[in-house]
Structure formats: C-alpha cells, structure tokens
User: Which sequence fits this backbone?
C-alpha cells in the first residue's frame, strides 16, 4: 500500500473521531439543559422545603454530638496515665551519689534513684526484694544466702551478677575505700557459688542482718580498674554514674555564682527500661539541688518544681500549705529523744534523770508540732517486735518529779530553782539549729523550770552539731536515731558502743548496764521472733529504771507536691530516701479515660 493512501486513511479516521466527540458533547449539553437547568426553576419553588429537611438533618447531628458529650461523664473519668516530667527540689549540695558514700539529703536522693539494692524497706514493716528474689539462713543465723533475680542488667546493658554484689561489700570492708559503712561489715565473709547466689558468713548469729542489705550495688566491670584509695573522688560518683535502679543519668549541670551559697545543681534522669521492678511510668525525673533555702521555696511556689523535700529546711522557708499543695507527712521509723550523758555531772544521778522524765509533758510537746505522730515511750517503737508498754518510761507527773528531787537533796530556792549544797540543778541541752528543735527545747525549758531545773539551750550549726555528737561534747543531747524495722538497737545502748574511741559510736547517753548488754546480745542472736521478745525484756526493764534518755516522738519527712502523685505511699519509712520505694509506679499526668 502506498504512503499517500495510508495518510488519506489516517485523516479519514481522525475526522470521524472528531465528529463523534462533537456529537457526544452536543448530547451532553442537551441532557444538562433538559435535566438540570430546565428543572432549576422547579428547585427554587420548593427551596423552603429542601432547606427545612437540611436544617432538620443538621439539628439531629448537633443533638447527637451534644448528647455524646453530656453522657461522656458517665463512662469516662479523669485518671492518671504514664508520662510527664517530675521535678523535685532538694536543699543542700550534691557531691557524691555513690551508695557506699552518700550521706547528705541530695546525695542519698540521687543515689536511691540510680542505684538498686538487694532489698528495700517497705512501708508495711517488711523487707521488699529489689535485686534479690529471696534469701535463706542456716539454723543458727550465721550463713545467709541471697538468691538474685534472673536476667538483671546494668544501665549500660552489662549483665548484673553475684560478683557485683560481692564486689560492692568487699569495697565497704576495704579500709582504703573510707566508707562510713565499714565498721558494721567487719568479719563478714562473702562468696559467690554461682552468678545468681551470694553467701554471707557472719562471725556470730545476727537476726537483723538482712536489714543491712539495703545499700545500692556497684558495677564491678566499671570500678574494678579504679584504685580503691581513689574511689571516693572518682568521676563515677557524680558525672558517670551507672546503676541498676529505676532511673539512669541523662545529664548534670551545675550553676555556680560568685556566692557559693547560691549554687544550684540540676540532675536529669530518664527511665531505665530494664529496672528489676518494672520500667518507671514517668518520662523523666529531674532533681534540682539548691544551696539557698529561699531559692528552693520560690522555685516551688512559682510552679517550677513538682515536689519539694523539706529535709533540713528551716520553718521560715517551708511554703504555707495552700490550695493545690499536698503535704505528705511521712513518719519515720526513728526516735527523737533527749539523751542524758550519764558518764559525769549531775545527769549521772539516776534519780535526777527519773525526775526529768516525770517532769516532761511529752504529749503536750507533740501537740505543738503541728502534725500527728506516735509518741516514743521506750527504746523500741510502738508496734515493733518486742515492744512492751509495761516498760514505758514514766508518764508526766510533776508532783512525783518534785518528790524525787526533794528526796535526793535538791532544795527549791527563792527564785524557784533547786540547789544541793553549792551546786545548782542546771545543765545544757545541745541541739541542731532547726525550728522544730527550738519549739521542743523551749517547751522542755518551761516544763523543767516548773520543777526547779534551770535548762540552758544551745543550738549549733550542722557542722558544729556533728562535732559535738561525734566527741560527746554535751551534757544532754536532743537528737534523732534511726531504729528501722528490726528491734536490734544494740548500737545505741550497748556498753561496747559507749566509748568515743569507737568508730561511729552511737551510744549517745554512754549508757552502760550489764543486764542490758546481755539482753541486747541475746535478742539480736535469736532467729525465733517469740524468743527474741522474751530476750529483750530485761533490757527494756533496765532502760526504764535507769532513764538514760527521755523519749519524745517519731519524726517525719514533710514532702510537698503540687497536686497528688499517684503511687506515692505515705509511710511509715525508715530513711527519707524510702519515699522512692515505689517510684516506678508514680504518675502525675491526667487524662479522661473510659471507665
């Protein structure tokens, strides 16, 4: 076929296609004219009818939406959900979060959040496993075997095993490490038969031993290369911390000024997904450490902080409890007491001490504190194993107190104060300079003056007070002691702990009594609870008769938050850091959820 013919055929086909398109367009236009434009006039004639139906339809939709919104309150509620940034303010300075060194409130706060321990002290009065799964003890109480949870890891992903536990306690025992915990670990042998078991062999039976296993565990793979003598100053303790606790270190920032009293540290923590008790529900935990109490208060009141730890904060710097602020009174398993130094002076006279106890109206003092707390009436806490109200200290009876002093030769002078020969019935009470101690001291001063005692009050700065306590430079001491869950109070009342030459001596009264010593020793070496109760009775009786101290009350940690914190238990607790016992369950974000 020739090319000219092909071109002609192609042109004919294109022409036919164009005519078909034109015909289709014409037909479409005719249909549009016939079925839409020609009927548009009819639509206008019924427009009000159409608008009515459209309006009714829209009204029905609006009604359904309003009804759903109104009924949502019946099947939805406001609840806390995971997430949110929790910011806590603490007074002091951050210096060392290593658990074998941490001592200040700031240090122990950070240490508790980053480092996990074998056990924690729960608010129900029992040990709560953290890294440990369980423990067993031999029949005489000298060999304790701790069984770890499987699949434990450090925050850098390295497996955590029994060798890390042994490494931690061997460090504490090493004198070159300079840990304040060393004295209580002397003579303890530590072995690791397998990666999930640690065996502690004690030189003597000790029923309270498991309660000493609450120290944070350290990573051997990181610290074993650091000379022990250099460990206290290692960067690990501040900027390179790696633990196995609920939160891991994200960053540290220190804001310094020309005035060191205005220093502020910010420690940012993020959740540790593989924490043994479960991943924390908070998105981030931030601790702001303030060296200035006023700045801490202002930061809390301005809403910069979710919570404020008032430990060590004077009353003038504690915000008033107003709307939106929740005050958590976390009662401590501790005892505030007046310890009489019985080693010398007029307080060596047992009858004088008995009179001072009878002349103190402790319930009236507690009533002025502004919060409810149990009284301390003996060296054990009410409800504790072996506590017996039969051996409580004498109740308030100023007439009996006066009778005791009269029979002891103390005569009331014209000024209302007592004298014996040329000696005045007077002594000094030493205490830390806090508002609560001022309140307690002033009330005791008035009460004891009414029975003829001249009490001088001495309030010291934290450093001076610690020196006075360490070297027993006081006649009477207003101080608190941590008693904990177990009734083993050997370190506070045994004669062997009464010398200032003993490291970390805590027998503040320098109380020495052979009967009490035997009872304390027997009570701590028995595993059977019923037998322990019996063994402690002679000690309680001796303490009651000798009156080496005046029991006052259990102190509290005042913890302030903006709004409630779901999962935060309200005590009682052993240490202030125990407020974080269940921190992995804390929630602060709120949202409406289906019921």
Assistant:
């Amino acid at each position: 076929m020739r090319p000219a013919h092909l071109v002609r055929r192609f042109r004919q086909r294109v022409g036919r296609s164009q005519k078909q398109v034109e015909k289709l367009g014409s037909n479409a236009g005719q249909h549009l004219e016939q079925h839409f434009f020609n009927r548009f006039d009819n639509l206008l004639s019924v427009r009000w009818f159409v608008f009515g139906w459209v309006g009714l339809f829209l009204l029905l939709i609006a009604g359904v939406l309003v009804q759903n919104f109104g009924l949502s309150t019946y099947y939805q509620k406001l609840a806390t959900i995971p997430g949110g940034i929790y910011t806590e303010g603490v007074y002091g300075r951050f210096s060392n979060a290593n658990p074998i060194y941490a001592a200040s409130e700031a240090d122990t706060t950070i240490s508790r959040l980053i480092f996990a321990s074998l056990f924690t002290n729960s608010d129900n009065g029992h040990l709560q496993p953290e890294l440990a799964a369980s423990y067993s003890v031999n029949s005489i109480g000298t060999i304790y075997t701790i069984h770890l949870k499987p699949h434990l890891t450090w925050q850098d992903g390295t497996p955590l095993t029994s060798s890390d536990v042994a490494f931690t306690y061997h460090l504490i025992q090493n004198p070159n490490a300079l840990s304040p915990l060393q004295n209580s670990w002397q003579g303890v042998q530590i072995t690791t038969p397998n990666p999930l078991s640690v065996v502690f062999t004690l030189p003597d039976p000790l029923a309270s031993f498991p309660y000493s296993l609450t120290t944070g565990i350290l990573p051997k793979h990181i610290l074993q290369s650091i000379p022990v003598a250099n460990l206290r100053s290692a960067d690990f303790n501040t900027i390179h911390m790696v633990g196995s606790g609920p939160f891991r270190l994200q960053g540290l920032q220190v804001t310094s000024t020309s005035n060191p009293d205005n220093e502020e540290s910010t420690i940012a923590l993020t959740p540790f997904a593989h924490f043994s008790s479960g991943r924390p529900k908070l998105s981030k935990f931030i601790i702001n450490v303030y060296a200035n109490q006023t700045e801490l208060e202002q930061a809390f009141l301005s809403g910069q902080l979710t919570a404020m730890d008032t430990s060590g904060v004077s009353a003038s710097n504690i915000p008033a409890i107003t709307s939106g602020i929740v005050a958590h009174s976390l009662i401590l398993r501790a005892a505030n007491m007046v310890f009489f130094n019985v080693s010398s002076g007029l307080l060596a006279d047992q009858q004088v001490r008995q009179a001072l106890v009878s002349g103190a109206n402790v319930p009236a003092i507690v009533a002025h504190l502004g919060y409810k707390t149990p009284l301390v009436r003996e060296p054990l806490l009410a409800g504790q194993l072996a506590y017996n109200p039969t051996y409580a200290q004498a109740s308030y009876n100023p007439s009996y107190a006066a009778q005791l002093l009269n029979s002891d030769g103390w005569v009331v002078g014209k000024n209302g104060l007592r004298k014996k020969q040329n000696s005045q019935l007077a002594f000094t009470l030493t205490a830390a300079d806090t508002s609560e101690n001022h309140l307690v001291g002033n009330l005791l001063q008035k009460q004891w003056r009414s029975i003829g005692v001249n009490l001088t009050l001495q309030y010291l700065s934290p450093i001076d007070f610690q020196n006075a306590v360490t070297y027993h430079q006081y006649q009477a001491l207003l101080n608190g002691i941590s008693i904990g869950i177990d009734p083993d109070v050997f370190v506070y009342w045994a004669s062997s702990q009464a010398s200032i030459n003993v490291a970390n001596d805590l027998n503040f009264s320098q109380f020495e009594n052979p009967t009490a010593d035997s009872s304390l020793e027997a009570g701590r070496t028995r595993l059977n609870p019923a037998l322990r109760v019996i063994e402690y009775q002679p000690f309680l009786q001796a303490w009651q008769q000798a009156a080496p101290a005046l029991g006052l009350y259990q102190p509290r940690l005042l913890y302030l938050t903006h709004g409630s914190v779901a999962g935060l238990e309200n005590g009682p607790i052993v240490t202030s850091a125990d407020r974080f016992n269940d921190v992995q369950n804390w929630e602060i974000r709120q949202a409406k959820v289906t019921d």
About this structure: The chain has a mean pLDDT of 89. Residues 3-45 form the longest helix (43 residues).
